[in-house]
Amino acid sequence: MNWLNSEAFTLLDQHIIWSDMIGNVLGLITLALGWRRSLLTWPVQFLSGLVLFVAFYGHLAGSAGKQTVVMAVALYGWWQWNRTKDKAQDGHIVPRFATWRERGAMIAAAAAGTVLVALLFKAYPSLSWDPWPDAYIFVGTIVAMYAQARGMVEFWIAWLLVDVVGVPLNFANGYAFSGFVYVIYGALVLWGMRDWWLRSRDGARPVLEGAPA
């Protein structure tokens, strides 16, 4: 599988490698399927993680390890969407807004997780080339995928926050194709968020726990 780490082509003086291109194209498809609320979003997400795991395994253990977490969350998303009883007439999940308690829990988990993962990366430099932003993107991705698995509109906002750091970080570290794809991610996220927002507008809205809806 060494070909996955070889150069595919050069674009605007940036060297594009096969694993970076294939993994991120699959990630782009995943996001588009998520917009359509298709169950296929999860197997494609799993395949994206698998491609990157194979590419990283053996020389970038930390990056490979991160992809195993992504694949595990993809399996959870598949299971969660399959068991969800509240579905639209088209058989897809019905988006909803998170409760204030859920929002607070995700923000707290993202903050604490970023600190813990960054400290882990700093303790073991081989796990990451840039501990803090790398930890932020990794934890933010997991939080976004979790929120998506739960059908929360807020998962789009989480992806936007990941993009803000992901675009410059990928360009700075030579993963140009990832950087270009993250820009496209941003456009898809905005369209997807609008679609989910409209679909959930008449459904569940964020309310304080214990307060009247």
TrEMBL record:
Domain of life of the source: Bacteria
Location in or out of the cell: Cell membrane
Major site of localization recorded for this protein: membrane
Transmembrane segments: 16-35, 42-60, 105-124, 136-162, 174-193
Membrane topology of the entry: Multi-pass membrane protein
Keywords from the UniProt entry: Cell membrane, Membrane, Transmembrane, Transmembrane helix, Transport
Cross-referenced NCBIfam families: NMN_trans_PnuC
Family classification: Belongs to the nicotinamide ribonucleoside (NR) uptake permease (TC 4.B.1) family.
Protein name: Nicotinamide riboside transporter PnuC
Gene this chain is encoded by: pnuC
